[in-house]
Amino acid sequence: MHVSVYVSDLTKSVDFYNRFFDQDPAKLKPGYAKYVLDNPSLIISFVENNERVQANFGHLGFQVETPEDLNIKLWQLKKENLVSKEEKGTNCCYAKQDKFWVTDPDGIQWEVYYFHEDVEFNDPHYELNDTAVCCTPSDDHESSHSK
C-alpha cells in the first residue's frame, strides 16, 4: 500500500515520523520524504504543500498482530512523548480493540490497535466533537468514518 500526505512543515513531520516509525526516511529531498516500512508493509510519502493540507482529514492506523506487539509499540512511543490517548477494551467501529493514539504536527491522528473481535455495539462515550477518533455517528446520524 502507498499513501501520500500533504504536510505544512516537512522538517517537523520528518522529526515526528522518524520517532513514530522508528526509522529514517528511505528518500529525503527538498519538500519530500518517503518511508518504506516492512511491518506493516506500507510506503508513505510526505509532500510539503501548506495549501493542500486537509483539515478534518480523519485518521490513519496500524493493526498489530498481538497484544504484546501493541504494548511494545506503546512503550516505545511513550518514551518519545508521542502518545496522546490510550484505550483498552474499546468497542469502536463495531470491533473490540485495545489501542492508543498519536497526532502528527499537522493534526493527523494515527491509531495503533489490536483487534480482539467484531461486536454489535459501538461505545457512546466518544466525545462528539472528536468523532475522527472513532465511528461515532454525527448529529445527522451519518457515520463520520468507517473501517
Short key terms for the protein model shown above:
147 residues, alpha/beta, 2,3-Dihydroxybiphenyl 1,2-Dioxygenase, domain 1, four-stranded mixed β-sheet, 2 helices, 39% strand
Protein described:
This protein is an alpha/beta fold. It folds into 2 domains: 2-50, 2,3-Dihydroxybiphenyl 1,2-Dioxygenase, domain 1 (Roll), CATH 3.10.180.10; 59-133, 2,3-Dihydroxybiphenyl 1,2-Dioxygenase, domain 1 (Roll), CATH 3.10.180. The chain is 17% helix and 39% strand. The chain contains 2 helices and 8 strands; from the N terminus they run E-H-E-E-E-E-H-E-E-E. The strands form 2 sheets. Strands 1-4-3-2 form a 4-stranded mixed beta sheet, with helices on one face. Strands 5-8-7-6 form a 4-stranded mixed beta sheet, covered by helices on one side. Residues 135-147 have low confidence and may be disordered.
The fraction of residues in strands falls at 35-45%
CATH third-level topology of the largest domain: 2,3-Dihydroxybiphenyl 1,2-Dioxygenase, domain 1
Helix/strand order, N-terminal first: EHEEEEHEEE
Please summarize the sheet with the most strands.
4 strands, mixed
Structural Rg:
16 Å
Structural domains: how many: 2
Q: Report how far apart the termini are.
A: 16 Å
CATH class descriptor name of the largest domain: Alpha Beta
Number of strands: 8
Q: Assign the structural class, choosing from mainly alpha, mainly beta, alpha/beta, alpha+beta, or little secondary structure.
A: alpha/beta
